Amino acid sequence: MSDSARLDGTRLLRAYRQMKLIREFEERLHVEIATGEIPGFTHLYAGQEAVAVGVCEQLGDADYIVSTHRGHGHCIAKGCDVGGMMKEIYGRRDGLCHGKGGSMHIADIDKGMLGANAIVGGGPPLAVGAAIACKLRGGGHVSVAFGGDGSANQGTVFEAMNMAVVLQVPAIFVFENNGYSEHTGCDYAVGSKDLTARARGFGLVAECVDGADFHAVYDAMGRAVERARAGGGPSAIEARITRFYGHFEGDPQKYRARDEVARHRETMDCLKRFRERMRAGGELAEAQLDAVDAEVLALIERIVADAKAAPPPVEADLYTDVYIHY
Q1: Is 152 helix (H, G, I), strand (E, B) or coil?
Q2: For the chain, domain boundaries
Q3: Is 229:140 a contact under the CB 8 Å cutoff?
């Protein structure tokens, strides 16, 4: 029996809530960014929710993740406070990073979220460092590096995968292949045409899954986590998925077919697929899922209002959080 087949109603409802929360968080940001109140670049995660949740539902607070510039979904899935996240994105003093990190640099060490990262391919070396720490400390904890298909071509990622194999550390590389490295198609930019096979070339156990299927991601991650916790070394998962918005907010998306996003919203929506599976299997009732929808929408309204009303950093805050003193 697969891991996902053993999930009870409580766990399934939690997974749906996490995916729905990510979706509504991002959909609302898409609206709020147009007002001009949110500073800096923002890269929305809508469409990829099943990957973040499928991965992080297999992790605990003592496990680590390192994120990307498209990191809101990873933060929420790992348990970061969504109110603190919204305040951070608005640049408020009470944000998770005191308003200094913004959308691309949210972190919460207490939750094992070592930070979003604006450098493409910058996360895997950090995740391998965390995996080395996990191995040295014992306890069976793991470290996960999220990255896109664009990051998969970076030398830093190649070096990180090689080091993880050489040192046999509990690192898991999750490649969210949404088809585009910014504006360049993966089919063009990846010479081998196969991220999974290339990961195997480094000596990693690697598999490819449907990134719109929460259960498929959860099961693949379960196998990788079990292997890593038992001392079996690193793994890679390629999740093939799409993003519902541009590379960044304001991206005109001229590189996409005219009907591509609308088509993907119909055929690759992880929330729709999850609901259909619950309906077919009878694990959760429509009323339960509808109640989650209503609760999430109310929460989003509240945290946006709180973020808009929260104070920004003061001038003296420029001199805090600059150095860590051991």
Answers
A1: helix
A2: 4-310
A3: yes
The set of residues, in sequence order, having a beta carbon less than 8 Å from that of 129 and lying 6+ positions away, is none
Helix (H, G, I), strand (E, B) or coil at 50: helix
Let me know: does 66 contact 73? Beta carbons within 8 Å: no
Q: Are 263 and 200 in contact (CB under 8 A)?
A: no
Give the fold, CATH level 3, of 4-310: Rossmann fold (3.40.50)
Cα gap 45→64, rounded to integer Å: 20
CB 76, CB 66: distance < 8 Å: no
Which residue has 């590189």 as its token pair? 255
Rounded Cα distance between 284 and 287, Å, is 8
3-state secondary structure of 237: strand
SS3 65: strand
Type of residue at 304: V
Please identify which residue in the block is written with the tokens 């910058």: 122
- pLDDT tens for the chain, 326 residues long, are 688 889 999 999 999 999 999 999 999 999 999 999 999 889 999 999 999 999 999 999 999 999 999 999 999 999 999 999 999 999 999 999 999 999 999 999 999 999 999 999 999 999 999 999 999 999 999 999 999 999 999 999 999 999 999 999 999 999 999 989 888 888 888 888 899 999 999 999 999 999 999 999 999 999 999 999 999 999 999 999 999 998 889 888 899 988 999 999 999 999 999 999 999 999 999 999 999 999 999 999 999 999 999 999 999 998 998 887 76
